[in-house]
Task: inverse folding
């Protein structure tokens, strides 16, 4: 899954060799995807991670400073203890990689996070997020009415953003449980807003 989440970074480095890329990760948690991003980073790439949980943010900072996997990029990785939707950047961002578990959130929060991530993007940038392929359907089968409404709302929000942006997906069957990455790119005709 982490390799699939960083495919856009590899694509960007191939398309624009020698150029530094500004990367934002939303919801890095313990750093499973962060580690993959660091491994793919070029010498001029920067990474800003936005983690809402203070304990996880502190853990990630310690991990970045101590693990050899981060050695080549640790000085260019910054961890901010802020909600994903409060991510900021002084320059347009090339890549937003969102590890936030959307299927656990309220639809309004998912919309806020997606809007925030897309707002940060350079016109040639991309936003990638993930979802477990069968989990929403399975949860819906055993959910209360209010939970079904929430699940359907999250699906509706993701579908609305997919319609407004160029979209690619990648199925990751080797993940447990199987998952899909979704990459949104600003539409040439519609910019990066709905």
Result:
């Amino acid at each position: 899954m982490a390799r699939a989440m960083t495919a856009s970074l590899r694509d960007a480095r191939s398309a624009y060799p020698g150029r530094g890329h500004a990367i934002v990760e939303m919801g890095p948690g313990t750093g499973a995807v962060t580690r993959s991003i660091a491994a793919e980073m070029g010498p001029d790439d920067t990474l800003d991670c936005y983690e809402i949980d203070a304990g996880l943010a502190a853990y990630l900072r310690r991990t970045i400073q101590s693990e050899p996997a981060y050695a080549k990029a640790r000085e260019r990785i910054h961890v901010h203890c802020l909600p994903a939707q409060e991510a900021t950047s002084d320059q347009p961002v090339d890549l937003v990689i969102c590890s936030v578990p959307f299927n656990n959130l309220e639809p309004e929060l998912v919309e806020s996070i997606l809007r925030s991530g897309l707002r940060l993007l350079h016109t040639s940038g991309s936003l990638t997020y993930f979802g477990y392929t069968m989990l929403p359907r399975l949860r819906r089968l055993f959910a209360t009415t209010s939970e079904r409404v929430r699940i359907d709302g999250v699906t509706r929000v993701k579908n609305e953003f997919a319609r407004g942006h160029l979209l690619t997906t990648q199925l990751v069957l080797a993940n447990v449980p199987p998952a899909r990455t979704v990459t949104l790119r600003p539409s040439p005709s519609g910019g990066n807003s709905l």
